Amino acid sequence: MASLVVPDTGVLAMEGFFLVGWWYALLVLPPFAGWAWLVSTVFDKHAARFFLGREKWNLIHMLFGIAALCAIAFMPLPGIVGFLAGYASLLAILALDVGVFVLVTNRDTERVPETARLRLDFSHLADARQAKKTAKQAATVALSIVGPNKTVIEAPNKETPEYQVRVAAEQFYIHGSRLGAYQMDIAPAKDGYQVSYLVDGVRQAGEKMPPQSAVAIIDYWKSAAGLDVNDRRRRLNGELTIRTDAESVPARITSLGSQSGMRLTLTTNPSKAVRRKASELGLLDQQFEVVRSLASEESGVVLLGSAGHNGRTTTLYSMLKLHDAYTSNVQTIELEPQDSLEGIRQIVFDPYKEGTEYAVTVRSVLRRDPDVVGIAELPDEATAREVAGSDFDRTRIYVSLNVDNALAAVQLFVKAVGDPGKAATCLHGVVAQKLIRRLCENCRVPYAPPPDLLKKLGLPGDKVKQLFKKGGQVLIRNKPEICPICQGLGYKGQTGLFEVYRIGPSEREMIKAQNWSGLRAEFRKQQLPSISQAALRRAVEGVTSIEEITRVTSSDAGAGEARKAS
To answer: DSSP code of 157?
Structure first.
């Protein structure tokens, strides 16, 4: 009886792959070549630029490529069916490799800035293609600007003067974006106009402009945002979107007239900048527990103090979000809301409207017995008296003040109320803050602090063995180059420095007597960190540098030692 020989399925698969037709191999080449080009020219450079483990990723890509080829070469199905199944497997494996690389590297937010992250969603390219088509017909521009009515603003003809204005307006934004600025300004200066950029709380000077050029750029951005170009007196706000091939950025345009000339402010991602949870503000653990305890109360006034551009609005919104807006009546009174707060009624006060006063608006809101009220400004004594004279036993009131320490916040509120006893009675707590720049983790430089430095800072020499300072450069192929993460600044991002204190019976007695040294002593008894102490804690953790602490806390009491030490 003849024996039955069963051929190996792998052999059949290989024979099927090579015998179905030589031109089938040509179908495999385009997707594989495209994948190889993407890996070698885009992914490899991306991994090298941001120090994502270039060799590791190259090995992973190679394994995926081998797996894709094996899938089509050894598919255990004969003929055209086997080829199609293998071809589908090849496409799936290569696509999986691309997806894994993009998803994993985009999650590395410490090393890969948001503007440099890779995207798999190509829907945003439609407007860019339309802009390019328009540009080809009219003028070459770098940005796609979308007005408030969702239509792309076409570029002027290249032969017209308006084209040069468009290019200059775009360059104003592009330069600020490269620096990582979230606020870009054009303002009158001594000899014309001055461009400046706010990068992580520090203003960077830009170019100087003649008045004619500056006003033309201001008018362009105003027009793009749907604002009245002829209104050169009032404060105007408009919204637009700026798109590139890589990202889509919402922006707010603010213009304001003065005796010296027009001023323009372009703020990117205004809502995102103030959208943080209380746990993300930078509070130390002890401070966060006090903040949560204060938020759990349903009465009294809590002061929130911070200088301009130091996170005051962010903290106000975060405190309000600690209250349940669906079970409580939560309201705000603001001049310019920076974000839409879910479940919270935001009342906008218009100072240009005749017959309206801020204090009257505050009184009207407080008389309706809301559970929680956030007052974004304290512009006058009348408003302070309305707060102190309200039924604060049934309403929690947060008052935002333009001061940068807890003691100054209490002093300002007492002075505005005009009655220390009345002011003291309603106060339950005070939160003050400053923002400090975070060291770029990609290029920060560790060093062993000398004993005399630690002694001046009041840090224990037996515990603090290492501190960090800013770098700004990294070694690429043994050659120093500007850090691609922080663009050579040495810092990337900001965090908050806080001081948080409860105000109880003993603190109220000091406030009534206006005994400010006694109030400071009562604050110390709570054994909670001051802003300067919180700053040193962040330096020990490697979050910031002694140099940055000196810049931020130089006006604080007790910061002199840090200033000398640096």
So the answer is: P
Joined together, the tokens standing for residue 51 give 């120090």
Type of residue at 167: V
Q: Check whether residue 223 and residue 315 sit in a common domain.
A: no
- Tokens of residue 196, six digits: 């400046």
Same domain for 195 and 110: no
CA atoms of 331 and 343, how far apart (whole Å) = 9
CATH number at residue 176: 3.30.450.90
Domain co-membership, 543 together with 463: yes
Higher per-residue confidence, 565 vs 145: 145
Name the residue among 221, 231, 284 with its Cα closest to residue 253. Answer: 221
Kindly report the pTM of this predicted structure.
Answer: 0.72
Which candidate, 543, 552, 566, 562, places its Cα nearest to that of 444? 543
17, 109: one domain: yes
Amino acid identity for residue 226 in this structure = G
Contact 200, 180 (CB under 8 A): yes
Taking the C-alpha atoms of residue 340 and residue 458, their distance in angstroms, rounded to an integer, is: 44
Tens-digit pLDDT profile for residues 472-507:
888 887 888 889 888 889 999 999 999 999 999 999
Q: 3 lies in a domain?
A: no
Give the N- to C-terminal CA distance of the chain in Å, as an integer: 96
Residues 76 and 189 in one domain: no
Element holding 345 (H helix, E strand) = strand 345-348
H helices, E strands: number in the chain: 21, 18
On whether both 344 and 386 belong to a single domain, the answer is yes
Query: Which positions ≥6 away from 269 have C-beta within 8 Å?
Result: 182, 249, 250, 251
Does 523 fall in a domain? Answer: yes
Task: Give the tens place of pLDDT for each residue, 422-476.
Answer: 999 999 999 999 999 999 999 999 999 999 999 888 898 888 899 999 998 888 8
Provide the 8-state DSSP code for 152: B
Cβ neighbors of 354 (< 8 A, separation 6 or more) are: none
For 276-321, the pLDDT digits (tens) are 999 999 999 999 999 999 999 989 999 999 998 899 999 999 999 9
Residue 355: which domain range?
274-435+494-529
